[in-house]
Amino acid sequence: MSESVTITDNRTGETIEIPIENGGISAKAFSKHMPGLWFYDPGFTATASTSSAITYLDGGNGVLRYRGYPIEQLAEKSTFLEVCYLLINGELPSATEMETWRHDITHHTFIHENMRKRFTEGFHHDAHPMGMLTSAIAALSTFYPEAKDISDPENRKKQINRLISKVPTLAAMAYRASIGMPFVYPDNTLNYAENFLSMMWRVAEPVYEADPVLSKALDTLLILHADHEQNCSTTTMRVVGSSHSDPYVSAAAATSALYGPRHGGANEQVIHMLNEIGSYENIPAFIEKVKQGDVRLMGFGHRVYKAYDPRATIVKEQADKVFAVTGRSPLLDIALKLEEIALEDDYFKSRNLYPNVDFYTGLIYQSMGIPMDMFTVMFTIGRMPGWLSHWEELMVEEQRIARPRQLYTGPDERDYVDIASR
Ligand code: ACO
């Protein structure tokens, strides 16, 4: 059996054979022989836009691995900072490498005072933290103009470190500004998750001591969100990066893509949905509305997973641990019942709709005291190393600028008509 695909152009009878490599066929090999004939794939449902050695995802079997390591093992045994290193460098760090990495990240957590004062003060009092964070990430580009030299690997490394270190600071800054609380400076004696929680909640205490169960749960959620191959925001990072924009504005574009309710905004929508359902007896009527196509069951469904999202299983375990500390969320029962019904109902079964990572994360964040409009901000902190590892891969491989084609469906040529005659 030949590992290839044969395509015949029935207009001309021309036949071409294209080899199958890494599970795909080269569109370039096709277009060379049949110029002017494009693959039509809105939403990229059947297109591999790149090759990548970072994340393996088998949606049919619910498998997710970063650099070959199963997500279940990383969630249980690793830390978010170690996973960041793994994603970016391709290997787990040695003890010395880990120490250097921790030091490098810890020593880039502070932001320029102008950012904290003038920049933040410019926002309206009820500005959404995600809008503030997106702008703040883009604004970093103006503080580090040397980031534009994307051809120097050492320089790229420095910007990557800065982004991973500073994003929690910017995220907490956006939150504190949105509730009129003073900025809390990073505490570099704390670990990544503890430091973030300190910047969120510290008031007058000399050192903020986060509950270890909650900081561990946060760290695990960040691991689960760290990468997910060519999702909407990562593809955005690659598309913008391919024009050789600097990593800050590229990451700001990726953050914007994540903001949408179909992507990173879904966990916020889950809580809105659970609040709207309100109580147990309203569930059947809500499910009916979903099946009529009036609303979507938020936190369900995924473009790639056609089985249970492996991250959702881990999130559910974390939820139990967090609720043991914070008390059980009253919305949990509604969520569990929705899941139970959906897993048995033909509408959901026939469309392979299972809970995705966002179905339970909102409930965890909410019970930790993190407000709803910060949920996507939390996702941004987690996804940053994924975006950056894809950006670095893009830079090393020197891929061409992203520039797809279209199928034109507009009018044929026509003559301009003067406004008085229209
Ligand atoms: N609730 C009800 N029906 C759904 C849902 C849902 N959440 N998701 C998909 N469907 C149905 C669609 O109506 C469609 O039915 P049809 O064939 O009868 O028309 C079918 O399932 C296929 O749906 P598509 O929209 O074609 O699937 P697509 O791959 O384009 O969308 C998406 C994936 C955006 C995630 C979708 O499932 C959705 O909107 N889910 C809710 C939002 C959500 O949870 N997003 C988070 C995704 S994970 C992440 O970004 C971290």
Can you put this structure into words, describing what you see?
This protein has 422 residues and is mainly alpha-helical. The protein folds into three domains: 55 residues, no CATH class; 197 residues, Citrate Synthase, domain 1, CATH 1.10.580.10; 102 residues, Cytochrome p450-Terp, domain 2. It is 53% helix and 6% strand. It has a three-stranded antiparallel β-sheet with strand order 1-2-3. Strands 4-5-6 form a three-stranded antiparallel β-sheet. The chain is globular and about 80 Å long. The termini are far apart. Acetyl coenzyme *A binds next to loops.
What class would the helix/strand composition place it in? mainly alpha
* SSE ordering: EEEHEEEHHHHHHHHHHHHHHHHH
In total, how many domains does the architecture comprise?
Answer: 3
Low-confidence regions: none
Q: What is the number of E strands? A: 6
CATH architecture of the largest domain: Orthogonal Bundle
The fraction of residues assigned to DSSP E strands is 5-15%
Termini Cα gap: 63 Å
Rg over C-alpha atoms, rounded to the nearest angstrom: 24 Å
Main sheet: strands, sense, barrel: 3 strands, antiparallel
Discrete helix count = 18
Can you summarize this structure?
The protein is mostly helical and 422 residues long.
